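From the thread on structure requests for the teaching lab: each student submitted one protein with a one-line request. Submission from student K.M.:

"Model Endonuclease/exonuclease/phosphatase domain-containing protein from Flagellimonas aurea, tokens only."
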Amino acid sequence: MRIATMNIQNLFYRDLSFLKQNASKNLQDWMEEFHVLLKNPKKEHQDLGRMRELAFLMGFSPQTTEPFLTLRRRGGHLYVKPLGGERQVKASERVGWNGWVELRSYPLDEKHREAKVSSIVQANPDILVLQEVEDRASLSDFNRDYLAPKLDGAFEQWLFTEGNDNRGLGHAILTRNGYRITGFQPHAHEKDKEGRDLFGMDCPEYTVVTPEGKELTIISARFQEDHKDLDLHTKRKQQAQRVRSFCNQLISQSRDKIMVCGTLGEVSYGDCLTPLLGDGTLSDFHGRSLGKTRKGKEGDWLAKHDYLLYSKAMASCINGSGVLFPLESKASDGGKCRFVGKNNRAVVPPLIWGEFDF
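Reply posted by the TA:
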């Protein structure tokens, strides 16, 4: 049995809130730069020009814009009023109209999607667990149009579960080669100490039965990660403690073949992951025979926040494991990782796989 997990970070489109987060970061940078230039008593010509540019970018000197048309809903019908016009025309089957509609999402680059598909194909899993999937329809299209042609057939069973995320993001599991999804337990209703949703994207618990009849429980997790000015260590530790309680309950029911996978938002030696990794009930593949990242050493992957954990009952069944990053498909690029950040560190979550023999 080969199982793989990946924080796919959307399949086809992404919510506009991600762009707004980037815009907020840019605004902060512009304000800091403007403040430095403003305090400089000896401003040169290029400094003044840059300040004018920053003032425009920050909205201090916005241009006046007029809408091309106005779209309104009245009495259950849509009416459009062109700029400068007085008459509002009702949209109907016979009367067409042109207009603008604000979208809540934007499409992702096809090259990025192909790189993720390539990692999945290379891992060739029997069970695939994904985090941050936008909706059921996208998962269906991804399975049929992208995975099926390269895996000699689509995954036969798949399930998408939406959680508490306002953007609609959820978890997904896909199985093939005789592996069957026989159970599902959501945990979206769990609350933290303040009475708020503990899991921002649920933490579903799947039951999978192997072709030999062995039962396996897979918990897909997406813990909170720190932001620039917000430390969510306490929240993450509460999430880890609750997932550990799920595992303890399963073990007490003699369902001891357990895997926890996904983005846990912290390095393995971090205090908030102690409930999961502190006593050996669950173990991490990191440090075993993980495959090479890109063309470098295993140590290249330093900021490890993604995991595939297994319980003690599965330790003796391990055949192998590996980690794959989305790679540049063009040979001219030398096989370098397309998605890299500072110091050539990968910034897109990798695909992690493990192989077991029950």
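TA comment: The first helix runs from residue 16 to 39. Confidence is low (pLDDT under 50) at residues 287-302, 328-346.
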